[in-house]
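agent> Task received from the user: take the single chain below, predict its 3D structure, and emit C-alpha cells. No templates, no multimer pairing.
agent> Plan: (1) validate residues, (2) run structure prediction, (3) serialize to C-alpha cells, (4) report one or two observations.
agent> Step 1 OK, no nonstandard residues flagged.
tool_call: predict_structure(input=
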Amino acid sequence: MISSRVCSLLVVVTTLAPVSSAIAQDLDTPSHVRGIDDGAATLIHDLVARSATGRDLVEQLDRSDLVVYVRRRLFQTALLTGRIGFLRGDCRHRFVAIEIAAPRNYVDELASLGHELQHAVEIAAEPSACDATSLAELYLRIGDPVDRWGRLADSFETRAAAETGIRVRRELFQASANEN
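)
tool_result: status=success, residues=180
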C-alpha cells in the first residue's frame, strides 16, 4: 500500500483565481516555489529550514522551468491533504498550484507540502506535461490511481511522493528533538 493520504490532481482549477492573478505580479521572484500569502510563504520557509528533503525539492524546482504557487485552504473532506494541478501551461511557461489542507497539525501541513513538492518535481522532469490532459497522461503512466469514494478519475499517487512525505515528517521530528 502506497499511502492512506490522497493526492488529487486538479483537472479544472477554477478555485485558484488569486493564484492566477499572482502570476503576473511576481514573475521576477527568484524562487520558483512561491506562497500566495504570508501563511503559505511561512510554510515554505519552515519546510526549507527544517527539512533537508524540503530544501532539496525547492532547489530542484528552482533549477527547472516549472513555477509552483502554494496556498493553504480548507477542504471539504479530511481525507484530502493536498493537491496539485496546472494553472496555466503552454509548454513554454508552466505554472502549477499546490493546495495544502488547512488548518491542520503544522507538521502534517509541512509533510503534505513536501509530498506535493515531490509531485511538482515529477512534473518538472516531464517537459511534455504542460496542461491538464498531459498531466493526467503523466500520472496514468507513473502513478497509481487512488480509489476515492468508489471512483477513479482525478486522484493519483506515486511511490516517490508517498516516501517523500514520510521522509519529511521524520526529518521534522528529528529537527524538533534536536532543538530540545
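agent> Step 4: summary for the user.
Strands lie at 6-10, 33-35, 66-73, 80-89, 94-101, 144-145, 156-157.
agent> Done.
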